[in-house]
TrEMBL record:
Highest taxon of source: Bacteria
Membrane topology: Peripheral membrane protein
Protein name, UniProt field: Amino acid ABC transporter ATP-binding protein
Entries under Pfam families matching the protein: ABC_tran (PF00005)
Entry's family note: Belongs to the ABC transporter superfamily.
Transport among keywords: yes
Ranges of residues in domain ABC transporter: 22-258
GO molecular function annotations of the record: ATP binding
CDD domains found in the cross-reference section: ABC_HisP_GlnQ
Location of the protein in the cell: Cell membrane
PROSITE patterns xref list: ABC_TRANSPORTER_1, ABC_TRANSPORTER_2
Length: 262
């Protein structure tokens, strides 16, 4: 088994009921006088795909930024594995956390002056201290995984938006994270390239990568998620398995949101 295969499993493992990999408890966050998160409880178990859906401005991205320690809540607990994220202060600890938590955004932010392969090699060699040979070998198999092995030597500017986003996903995987957060990764893409990006994410979920997805692709969230949270105005209005939340929402707010978006 090579290094990449050892962290990418071939079939979705059975999730046993151990402690959640990610746990937010009663998280409150305000920007100045504006309450943005007003008591958020979220759990993500190893191997699960969890989606967060809800109207624009409801706090979805803020939740993800709290998980990576980019934002610190005023109240509440955030745990990723054994790490109490809400207590981390030092840059060194935060960098260590971010090595374990991949984050893919709407804006893929690849380094434009580096080739696709170099984009994948830079963090594993500079931040994780891996050898160039090992990092390149990993990078090539990840590019195969996202169906871009033939573009290893291209520059980001030569690729379509969807291809760049697949490189961004491969770049996150190159750090061998414990989980990946996806924040509206298809929202800025041309419709014809969205499908290829969703295919890559679907495959990761199937392999048992722990994923948290903020998405407006409701059908996709319904298809791939183990659990779905619906947020509005900084609160979780309701959450549950996708079959329940999408087909039998309990709250009027969830119902009207889904009617507008499905
Ligand atoms: P979503 O991702 O669901 O669209 P966000 O988490 O980005 O929502 O934002 C939630 C709310 O917090 C919005 O009202 C937004 O305007 C506000 N907000 C986000 N970031 C900041 C910031 N850095 N300063 C002030 N307000 C912010
Ligand atoms: Mg957002």
């Amino acid at each position: 088994m090579n290094a990449t295969e050892s962290f990418i499993k071939t079939s979705k493992p059975v999730v046993v009921s151990t402690a959640p990999l990610v746990q937010l408890r009663d998280v409150h966050l305000a920007f100045g006088a504006t309450d943005v998160l007003r008591g958020i409880d979220v759990e993500v178990h190893r191997g699960q795909a969890v989606s967060i859906i809800g109207p624009s401005g409801s706090g979805k991205s803020t939740i993800l930024r709290c998980i990576t320690g980019l934002l610190r809540p005023q109240r509440g607990d955030i745990r990723v594995g054994d790490t109490a994220v809400h207590t981390l202060r030092g840059e060194v600890e935060l960098i260590a956390l971010r090595r374990r938590v991949g984050f893919v955004f709407q804006q893929y932010n690849l380094f434009p002056h580096l080739t696709v392969l170099q984009n994948l090699v830079i963090a594993p060699t500079r931040v994780a201290g891996r050898s160039k040979t090992e990092a390149e070998q990993d990078a090539r198999s990840l590019l195969e995984k996202v169906k871009l092995a033939h573009r290893a030597d291209a520059y980001p500017g030569e690729l379509s938006g969807g291809q760049q986003q697949r490189v961004a996903i491969a770049r996150a995987l190159a750090m061998r994270p414990q989980l990946i957060l996806f924040d509206e990764v298809t929202s800025a893409l041309d419709p014809e390239t969205v499908g290829d990006v969703l295919t890559v994410i679907r495959e990761l979920v199937r392999e048992g990568m722990t994923c948290v997805l903020v998405t407006h692709e409701m059908r996709f969230a319904e298809e791939v998620s183990d659990h779905v949270y619906f947020t509005e105005a900084g609160r979780i209005v309701e959450h549950g398995p996708p079959a329940e939340l999408f087909n039998r929402p309990r709250h009027e707010r969830t119902r009207s949101f889904l009617q507008r978006t499905l």
